[in-house]
Amino acid sequence: MNLWQEYKRPVSVAEAVQALASAPGSVMPIAGGTDLILDLKQGRHSPVHTLIDLTSVHEMTVLEIRGGSLFIGAAVPVNRVALDPLTATHAQALVEACNLIAGPQVRNTATLGGNVAHALPAADGTIALTALEAVAEVANDLGIRRIPFTSLFAGPGKSAIDKTKEIIVGFHVPLAAAHQASCFKRIMRPQGVALPILNCSVWLERNGDEVKDIHIAVGPGGSTPFRATNAEAALRGKSLTEENYNKSVDALLAQAKFRDSARRASAEYRRHIVGGLFKDVLYTAWDRA
User: Fold this and answer.
1) pLDDT grade, residue 34 (50/70/90)?
2) How would you classify the pairing of strands 63-66 and 158-159?
């Protein structure tokens, strides 16, 4: 049985949206395809009539400074994100996350947009972008709009984007300023399974010995990418003392909703290890800032 009947390669965002809207049957966008093709072959996704290949859409393959932010096209391969000096300067947490996604061959093909569109609450690129407070650029037949990054998600594996009508064009990440830094780390099984037991990303701005501002993301901490806003409030505007750190961990544990996973870890184990991981990431970002 054919996994698809038609394969289209638009060269502009407008063409891509039109191709989605005019497809005669079921339709899906594809870029790297490292998840979608496997899902189709292994029967986890029903066959589609039309695949819309986005890799020739120039707007979605650029990585550049644009309008006061770093713009990363959704079809940019993960390895390019990891190696580009612009992301190293302005989004170090994203570099660290991308370097941990799967293996080298997959990173050369998989895209940042695909990592996000898969809507897993512990996807490495997704957690880093959550902490960096990225803004997504989304296109449909009405035009292009920008939406807060966390608005892209509706639940575990459920995107709020209608993949039959809309595409994620790219992501805007604020440019790093003086005394701002970020970090991403994760805990995974020693056998090298490419699924994190837990990951964490922190962006912060430092003012001497005070945490001027901070964003904390933990995956999986809920059904969608989780911002530990209560922990942020416990540290924002305060000195980074052991007492304030402990208060922030308590706030994180009270807000997070860890789940049991047969393939990853129990909720109890995640609660046990999150403090150590968070402390490592927090103090690394603090030292960098």
Assistant:
1) confident
2) unpaired
Given a cut of 60, whether residue 193 has pLDDT beyond it is no
* % of the chain beyond a pLDDT of 90: 84
d(CA 273, CA 265) in angstroms, rounded, equals 11
- Per-residue pLDDT of 86-135, as tens digits, reads 999 999 999 999 999 988 899 999 999 999 998 989 999 999 999 999 99
Return d(Cα 234, Cα 251) in angstroms, integer.
7
Distances (CA, A) of 251 to 95, 108, 143, 224, 275: 28, 38, 40, 18, 11
Q: Which residue has the tokens 């001497």?
A: 208
- The predicted pLDDT at position 249 comes to 98
Return the half-sphere exposure (C-beta side, CA atoms, 13 A cut-off) of residue 215.
22
Predicted confidence band at 191 (pLDDT cuts at 50, 70, 90)?
Answer: low
**Fold of the domain built from segment(s) 6-53:** 3.30.43
| Class of the CATH-defined domain 180-288 | alpha beta
Distance CA 47, CA 3 (A): 5
Dihedral angle over CA of 73, 76, 80, 84, nearest 10: -10
CATH number for the region 58-174 comes to: 3.30.465.10
Instruction: Give the domain ranges of the chain.
Output: 6-53, 58-174, 180-288
